[in-house]
Amino acid sequence: MVRVPLTPEDRERGERLGALLRAARGDRSIGDVAAAADISPETLRKIETGRIPTPAFFTVAALAAELGLGLDALAACRRSSADASPAA
Q1: Residue 53: what pLDDT?
Q2: Handedness of CA 78, 39, 61, 67 (dihedral sign)
Q3: Is 50:16 a contact under the CB 8 Å cutoff?
Q4: Which of 64, 66, 18 is closest to 43 using CA atoms?
Q5: In b/e form, how buried is each residue of 5-22, taking b as 16+ CB within 10 angstroms?
Q6: Which of 45, 44, 51 is nearest to 10 (CA)?
Q7: CA dist., res. 42 & res. 69, Å (int)
Q8: pTM, whole model, 2 decimals?
Q9: What DSSP string runs through 17-86?
Q10: pLDDT tens-digit map of 12-71
Q11: How far is CA 51 from the centre of its chain?
Q12: In whole angstroms, what is the distance from residue 16 CA to residue 74 CA?
């Protein structure tokens, strides 16, 4: 299977998601959060560093539930700061 290369926007979105998850994790260890979300610590580490910019929905949903994040907060990561213009 050939993977389609990630666009700069994909990479930026992955970095925003990773930063949000890292901030929500706070002082908790990667291992503790990963175990509670039933994923591997390496997967969480890769998501937080943007190396997996498009993780599976159920992985993100499990992390959101464990970290107390609403899916709307995660969905906001889809938009860049340039796209987040105020409503007229």
Answers
A1: 85
A2: negative
A3: no
A4: 18
A5: eeeeeeebbbebbbebbe
A6: 51
A7: 21
A8: 0.82
A9: HHHHHHHHHTTS-HHHHHHHHTS-HHHHHHHHTTSSSS--HHHHHHHHHHHT--HHHHHGGGS-TTT-PP
A10: 999 999 999 999 999 999 999 999 999 999 999 999 998 888 899 999 999 999 999 998
A11: 10
A12: 9
Q: Is the dihedral of CA 26, 30, 36, 42 positive or negative?
A: positive
d(CA 55, CA 50): 10
Structure tokens at 4: 């389609």
* Distance, CA of 11 to CA of 6 (rounded, Å): 7
Sign of CA dihedral 23, 28, 34, 38: negative
